[in-house]
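Structure first, sequence second, as always.
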C-alpha cells in the first residue's frame, strides 16, 4: 500500500487541477446543474479508465515508436479544444437555450484527443504500474484506482460550476461567463500545445 501512495497523489493532482475536462465541467455545471452534468462526469471517468488501461497494455509504446503519431494527436486535441471553446463562446445566452451539454459518449471520446489525459495515462503506464502483478491485472488496478480518485475530483468542478451558476441570472453575466470559460479552455489548449 505504501508503494501506491505516490500514485494516489498523482491521480489526485491530475484529476483535481485545471484542465480541459474540468473547464468543460465548470461550464456545464453552471448552465445545467450537477445532475444534468453527471453523464459528462461519468464519461470523463470511463474514457480515462479505458485510455489508461489501453496505454498500460501497450498503446503508449506506439507513441514511443512513432513520435509523429503523438504530435498529430496533440495537434488534433488542441484543435478540438479550440472548437469546443468557440462553441461555448458563441452559444446563446437566453435562459431557454443554454449551451449544449456534453453527453456521456462525447465526454468519454474527448479523452482520446485530450492532451492532459494522454500525459496522465502515459505517466501511469510508465511510472506507476505495479511490477508484482500481471500486465492485465496491473492495468486494471491502476485504471480502477484512477477512476475512483477522479470521480470526486471532477465532481467538485461541476459542483463549483453549479454553485456559481446561480450568479448568472442575467444574459450579460452568462455571456461574460461563457467568454471567460471559452478563453480559459482556449488558453489551456494553446499551453498544452507547447
Amino acid at each position: 500500500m505504501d508503494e501506491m501512495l505516490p500514485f494516489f497523489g498523482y491521480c489526485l493532482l491530475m484529476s483535481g487541477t485545471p484542465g480541459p475536462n474540468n473547464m468543460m465541467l465548470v461550464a456545464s455545471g453552471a448552465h445545467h446543474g450537477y445532475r444534468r452534468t453527471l453523464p459528462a462526469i461519468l464519461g470523463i471517468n470511463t474514457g480515462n479508465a479505458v485510455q489508461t488501461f489501453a496505454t498500460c497494455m501497450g498503446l503508449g509504446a506506439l507513441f514511443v515508436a512513432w513520435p509523429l503519431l503523438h504530435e498529430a494527436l496533440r495537434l488534433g486535441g488542441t484543435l478540438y479544444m479550440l472548437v469546443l471553446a468557440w462553441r461555448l463562446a458563441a452559444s446563446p445566452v437566453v435562459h431557454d437555450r443554454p449551451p449544449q451539454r456534453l453527453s456521456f459518449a462525447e465526454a468519454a471520446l474527448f479523452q482520446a484527443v485530450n492532451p492532459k489525459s494522454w500525459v496522465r495515462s502515459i505517466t501511469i503506464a510508465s511510472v506507476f504500474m505495479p511490477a508484482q502483478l500481471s500486465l492485465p491485472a496491473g492495468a486494471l488496478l491502476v485504471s480502477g484506482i484512477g477512476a475512483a480518485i477522479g470521480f470526486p475530483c471532477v465532481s467538485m468542478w461541476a459542483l463549483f460550476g453549479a454553485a456559481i451558476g446561480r450568479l448568472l441570472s442575467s444574459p450579460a453575466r452568462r455571456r461574460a461567463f461563457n467568454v471567460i470559460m471559452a478563453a480559459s479552455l482556449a488558453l489551456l489548449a494553446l499551453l498544452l500545445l507547447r
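Margin note: The chain has a mean pLDDT of 85.
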